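Quick start: read one record
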Amino acid sequence: MEPDGAPPAASITPLVDGPPRRFEFRSERLTLDQTYDGHSLSEMLNRESEQGWDLVEVITGPDGALVLLRHPKRGDAHNRPVGFVVPSR
């Protein structure tokens, strides 16, 4: 329930302005043992996320896994104003 005079939550629209974000991608290879040992993948993802990398996909194969990571290109991380705007009626 909204306080008196507040617009309903559904009427607030997120607004992200600016050019599309560009990403830098990289991959990390894990051996088959590392892929299924229960801790190597999570340790690697925790370490990389502390450096600003996000998981895109884990591609498994017969010899292990390829972990695809991304982060905003330098200079793009703080160039996108983000806010909320009430849609015009």
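The chain has a mean pLDDT of 82.
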